[in-house]
Amino acid sequence: GDASGASVRRLADWDAEDLRALAAEFGTPLYVDDLARVRQNYARLAGAFPDAEVLFAVKANAGRHVLRTLAAAGAGAECASAGELARALDAGFDPADVHYTAVNPPAEDLDYACRIAAEHPALTVTAGARDTVERLAERGFAGRFCLRVHPGVGAGHSESVSTGKDAKFGVPAADATAVLADAAERGFDVVGLHAHAGSGITNDQIEEHEAVVSTLADVARETDLALEFVDVGGGFGVPYREDEDALDLERVAARTRAALDGVDATLTVEPGRYLVADAGVLLTEVNTVKRVGDTTIAGADAGMTTLVRPAMYGSYHPIRSLVAEERATENVSVVGPVCESTDVLGEDRDLPAPERGDLLAVGNAGAYGVEMASQYNSRPRPAVVALDGDDAEVVRRRETLADVTLAEDTASDPYP
Ligand code: LLP
Q1: Domain ranges within the chain, ordered by starting residue
Q2: Band of the pLDDT at 4, cuts 50, 70, 90?
Q3: Binding-site residue positions for pyridoxal 5'-phosphate
Q4: Mutate to test the pocket of ligand 1, among 199, 212, 249, 313 (most ligand atoms within 8 A of CB)
Q5: Where substrate is bound, by residue (predicted)?
Q6: Superfamily (CATH H level) for 278-407
Q7: Ligand 1: does its nearest atom lie under 6 Å from the Cβ of 366?
Q8: CATH code, residues 35-274
Q9: Which three-class secondary structure string do you get for the chain?
Q10: Which residues are designated catalytic?
Q11: What is the pTM of this model?
């Protein structure tokens, strides 16, 4: 294990023998989340932003083990749905440290959030549309309110995760003071401003992040409402490629502070990936090997239903063979068991010549891994094991074929 809390944990840093033992005990595919690493990531992030409030973006990994760990470490929670809100409260986050960020919220989500806000007046609700403000008012909402601004600048690892520009999120910065005033007139307790540039910000996108913060700072100076906090979103990237550098957090923090100069409000940040990505690996077993021209195709038991990021965004995840013996390397494509040609975990990898029964580890699976897993092809989702020191515990059981038809089998009972 890595006790140092270094800013990057590479896939190579995981102990192969430990991972083989986990696969042998719990089967594959298997998500492994190391809670000690989650704590280290939180401590480093919170250390870089010493007087900020840190909210974990639950969407990155909503597992109860992760939420409990971060709640105990002192984090708050940013929730994007009624389900995430329910999970955050269930995991023990103090409602005062919980934000619900409504995005075109279905009526049931708003009903639920308003009920929770009435029960727990310390909860903060963030909205990014006039319609959402009206729909909150229709429900008698009078709680803590934060406005999401569309900053007009985006960032992130790909166009598909840029939220700050030409995307559906937030009200245009030019309308922000008017919407804030309207919310206050309706009796909302206006406490904050919010924006999120995108997900996976790297060292060469710190400017974009800073521009987003500057836009928020402008709105904060413009409004005559006293704000408690300015929430600059998440998006702090982690290296996925073996040779990529860690994000310079100190620099991000310094630029964030500089952009907020003169704004009398607490800073809030919402990291998701940064806290959990390198705390997780996905273990998968090779069951089929084909040699096609210069490429070897390794068919594994995990694929796009287990980790969709490569298929969905073309994302790179490191892949490592956990075989103990020495073998010559080959050019390998690792593919999954789904009937789709995009069902690829990695292409063009230099890996020890694969053989049936080999165990592979896929890195950075702790963020947006199990959260984005699906049952496509009627494939049950894998188990999750939480590591904590010498402890390994199944925190989410492997689904079975019965889980695949559960919603149909219980269709006549809406609350099985
Ligand atoms: N706050 C808000 C309002 C967000 O929309 C997001 C991410 C976050 C915080 C956390 O972002 P993070 O720190 O994890 O980058 N499925 C994609 C990522 C989409 C994230 C959407 N919003 C992926 O696998 O890369």
Answers
A1: 35-274, 278-407
A2: low
A3: 235, 270-273, 368
A4: 199
A5: 273, 309, 313, 340, 368
A6: Lyase, Ornithine Decarboxylase; Chain A, domain 1 (2.40.37.10)
A7: no
A8: 3.20.20.10
A9: CCCCCCCCCCHHHCCHHHHHHHHHHHCCCEEEEEHHHHHHHHHHHHHHCCCCEEEEEHHHCCCHHHHHHHHHHCCEEEECCHHHHHHHHHCCCCHHHEEEECCCCCHHHHHHHHHHHHHCCCCEEEECCHHHHHHHHHCCCCCEEEEEEECCCCCCCCHHHECCCCCCCCEEHHHHHHHHHHHHHCCCEEEEEECCCECCECHHHHHHHHHHHHHHHHHHHHCCCCCCEEECCCCECCCCCCCCCCCCHHHHHHHHHHHCCCCCCEEEECCCHHHHHHHEEEEEEEEEEEEECCEEEEEECCCCCCCCHHHHHCCCCCEEECCCCCCCEEEEEEECCCCCCCCEEEEEEEEECCCCCCEEEECCCCCCCHHHCCCHHHCCCCEEEEEECCEEEEEECCCCHHHHCHHHHCCCCCCC
A10: 339
A11: 0.97
Residue range 325-347: mean pLDDT, rounded: 97
Residue-wise pLDDT for 177-229, tens only, equals 999 999 999 999 999 999 998 898 999 999 999 999 999 999 999 999 999 99
Q: Ligand 1: distance of its center to the CA of 186 in Å?
A: 30
